[in-house]
Amino acid sequence: MVQTRSAAKIINPGPVDDDGNGVLQTQNDTVKPPADDGALPPAKKRRREGEQAPKKSRRRKSGNIFQLNLDVLYVIFASMRPLNLLNLARTCKSFRGILMVKSSAFVWKAALRQVDGLPDCPDDSSEPAYTNLVFHARCHVCAGSPDASNYS
User: Which residues contact 26 (CB under 8 A, 6 or more apart)?
Assistant: First the structure.
């Protein structure tokens, strides 16, 4: 039979003698069992042989670069090469949030202007997508290496 918490309460049916603390218990009061002063904490579970301790996740805190003014960051970003800028945008959520919005298109245009002989970005594509198409070394259909012989 399963014993619930409410059934585990010890209810005193009447007033209890004064134990020197001056508290009388009524019928609705619960009495806790006496604490065992010599009780030990439960033993820790042993790991099996070959089993490693669970790894704690380490999240790095954002560095001081995000404390810079956005104007300073935009100047730094505009001086980068397009592929480096694309890789930086893929680094973390903070850089992605700064670089992958339409308001930062001028940064991508400035980076693309640094490449001689590169045609302008088409109207139906964004600057990051155009940078990925031109400079990334993977096939955009199958995501394989460019030397893949199977183009199905």
Answer: 15
As a whole number of angstroms, the distance between CA 86 and CA 78 comes to 12
Predicted pLDDT at 111: 93
Which carries the bigger pLDDT value, residue 29 or residue 66? Answer: 66
Spatial separation of the C-alpha atoms in residues 60 and 57, rounded to whole Å: 10
**Residue in the block written with tokens 């956005």:** 70
pLDDT of residue 77: 92
Q: Of 33, 34, 32, 14, which Cα lies nearest the Cα of 24? A: 14
For residue 11, what is the DSSP state?
A: B
pTM over 0.70: no
